[in-house]
Amino acid sequence: MKKGRFEDFKFVTRFKRLNLMAQIALGLSLYIGLNFMAARHYRRWDFSSDMRNSLSPESVAYVKSLEDPVEIFAVVSQGVNDRDSQQIVRDLSSLLRRYEYASSRNAPVKVDFINPHLDNKKAEKLVQRFGSDLEDCVIVSGKNRFKRIPIVDFYGAENGADRRDFNGEQLISSAILNVSYGKEPKIYFLKGHGEMSIKSANSMRGLSEFVQSLRSRNYAVAELDLNESKRIPDDADMIVIAGAQMEFLPKEIDALRKYLLNSNGRLIVFLEMGPLHGLENIFYEWGIMSDDMLVLDSGGDYESASGDMIARNFPQKSHAIVHYLISMDMPVQFGSVRPVRPDMGAPVDEALKLEPIILSSKSSWGEKSYLRGGMQSYNSETDIPGPLPLAMTASRKRGADLGLTIPGGKLAVFGDENFIANKWFNRLGNSKLAINTVDWMFDENNMLNIAPRRLDSYSITLSQSEIYALALRFGALPIAAALAGFIVFLLRRR
Q1: What is d(CA 284, CA 344) in angstroms, rounded to the nearest whole number?
Q2: Domain final position from 146, 180, 214
Q3: What integer pLDDT is reported at residue 304 of this predicted model?
Q4: Total number of domains constituting the chain
Q5: CA atoms within 13 A on the CB side of 23
Q6: Cβ 260 vs Cβ 268: under 8 Å
Q7: Is position 15 within any domain?
Q8: By the 8 A CB rule, do 116 and 135 touch?
Q9: How far is it, in rounded angstroms, from Cα 36 to Cα 24?
Q10: Helices 208-216 and 430-441, interaxial angle, to 10°?
C-alpha cells in the first residue's frame, strides 16, 4: 500500500518548517503594518488634570492654518552628567512634539534636536543658514524668515535658575506666526538731522555693522527723510533715530507722534548728549524723560580708562531684552551715556507700561556740569544719585478701558548712541542689546492669550532600608508566580 505524502516523515518536516516560516513572515508583516499605520494615523490623549501635555486651542488653530512647512531646531549643549541641560531637552521635546502632532501633512512642523558639540555637521549647516551665535537657543524657520529664541527666555524665573513657569508654548506659537508672515518687517532709519548713517563704514558714525546684523535676521532696512516725505510710509514697521544732532521740525514731530499713537508704531531712539531737538515732546506723552547729564561712576569696575561706561546692572525684575545678557553674565559698553528715567510729571496713563532695561551702578551719578571738564564729583544740589536707568521702554495697550489687551505702540529710548556704532557694536554685549531690542519691538507674544505652564517637580527621599522594603513588597508577587510556575514545570516532567 502506497504511503501518502503526509505520511512521509521528510515531507511533513519540510511542510512544518515552511508553515513556521510563513507564520513568522505573516507575523512580521502584521507587526510592521500595524506600526506603519500607527505612525501615520494615531491619536493622543491627555489625562493630566490641567491639560499640561496639550497645546491650547489657539496654538492648534495657528498650526493647522499653516500654508508652508515650518522647521524647528533646538540647539542645546548637553553633557553626559549635565542634568540641567537634560531637563531642558525634556521640557522642549515634550512641547515641540505636540506641534509636530498638531500640524498637517501639507504644512508639517518638523523638529530636530542638535547638540553642537556632537553634531558638528548639522551645526555647521545651521551656521550657514542662520549665521553664528546659535548655541543654546531654538530656531523657528519658515519659508522666508526665521526667529531665534534663547533658551533662557523659555523659563519665567529670574536668570533661569529656578525653573517654575514655562513660557514655551507662547514663544513657539508666536515665532511660528512671525516666520509664517510672508512680508519682511521694514525698519526705517531717519536721516536729515545729522543722524548716524546706515551706509557708512565709519567707526564712529557708521551703522553698517548694525544694519548687516539686522539684514541677516530677515529685517528690511532703508533710510527715511521726513523733510522729503510728506508722511511716514505705510510699510514702516519700525523707525530708528540714531544720534540726531539737529532740531526736528514741528511737522516731523507731529508725524512721529501720530505714528506711535494712531498707527501703533514702533520707535527706537539712541540719544546723544545735549538737547533733545524736540523729541522731549514725544517722550512726555510716553512718560519718559532724559536729563542733559552725563552718567559718571566712581567705581573702577564700571568705567574704563577711555571714559566708556561698562554697565552690568539690571533691574530686579529684568526686562525681556536683557534676559540673555544676564544669563551669560555679559555687560554692555556705553560711551558718553545720559540717564533715561520715568517722567514723574507726565499724565497718569493706566494703559502705559514703563520698564527700565539697564542701570548704572550704586556708585554712579548724573553729572549736571559735565561740560566744564576736569575732575568731577557728586553734588547733591545739582546732580542725581545712582543707580540710574540708562535705557527704558514704554508700551501701550489699546482697549484697556474695555478690558481688552490689544498691543499698541512701543517706544525704546537709550541714553547713548555710541554702543551701536561700528567701533563698539561687536564689543561685549552691545550687539545683543541692540538686536534684542529690535526683536522685542516685533515680539507678538502679547497677542497670544496663552498662560505660562507651571513646572512642578516631585521627588521621593528614601533610606536604604525603605528601598529594600519596597523592593520586597513589589517583588514578592512576581517571584511567587515564577516559583509556582517552576514547581508545576518540575511536576509535569515527572
Answers
A1: 10
A2: 180
A3: 44
A4: 2
A5: 6
A6: no
A7: no
A8: yes
A9: 18
A10: 50
Q: In degrees, to the nearest 5, what angle opens at C-alpha 235 toward C-alphas 229 and 241?
A: 60
d(CA 244, CA 89): 46
Give residue 449's pLDDT band: very low, low, confident or very high (50, 70, 90).
very low
285 phi, psi to nearest 5 deg: -65, -20
Range of the domain at 361: 186-447
- The whole-number pLDDT of residue 305 equals 46
Bridge partner residues of 185 (DSSP)? none
Q: CA angle 83-89-92, nearest 5°?
A: 140
Q: Would you say 270 and 416 are in contact if contact means Cβ atoms under 8 Å apart? A: yes
Give the separation between CA 212 and CA 425, rounded to whole angstroms: 11
Could you please report the per-residue DSSP string of 463-492?
Answer: -HHHHHHHHHHHHHHHHHHHHHHHHHHHHH
Summarised one tens digit per residue, pLDDT across range 280-316 is: 999 999 999 999 999 988 776 555 445 678 888 999 8
How would DSSP label each residue in 400-447? GGGT--EEEEEEEEES-SGGGSTTTTTSTTHHHHHHHHHHHHT--GGG
- Whether 447 shows a pLDDT value over 70: the answer reads no
Whether residues 153 and 218 fall in one domain = no
* CA–centroid distance for 486 within its chain: 60
Cβ atoms of 354 and 396 within 8 Å: the answer is: no
> What is the DSSP code (8-state) at residue 359?
E
CB 342 within 8 A of CB 392: yes
Place of cell 504644512: 107
The SS3 of residue 258 is helix
- pTM of the predicted model, to two decimals? 0.69
CB 469 within 8 A of CB 367: no
Q: Are strands 389-398 and 352-359 parallel, antiparallel or unpaired?
A: antiparallel
Strand partners, 365: 296, 385
Residue 357 counted as domain residue: yes
Q: Which amino acid is at 469?
A: A
Q: How far apart are CA 382 and CA 405, in angstroms?
A: 41
Percent of the chain with pLDDT over 90: 31
Whole-number Å distance between alpha carbons of 467 and 469: 5
Find all residues with CB under 8 Å of 80, minimum gap 6, and list them: none
Q: Beta-carbon neighbour count of residue 52 at 10 Å?
A: 13
d(CA 265, CA 366): 31
C-alpha cell at 102: 498638531
Q: Are residues 138 and 199 in the same domain?
A: no
Out of 146-150, 256-260, 265-269, 283-287, which region has the weakest mean confidence (pLDDT)? 146-150
Give kind and range of the element (H or E) at residue 27: helix 9-40
CB of 172 within 8 A of CB of 133?
A: no
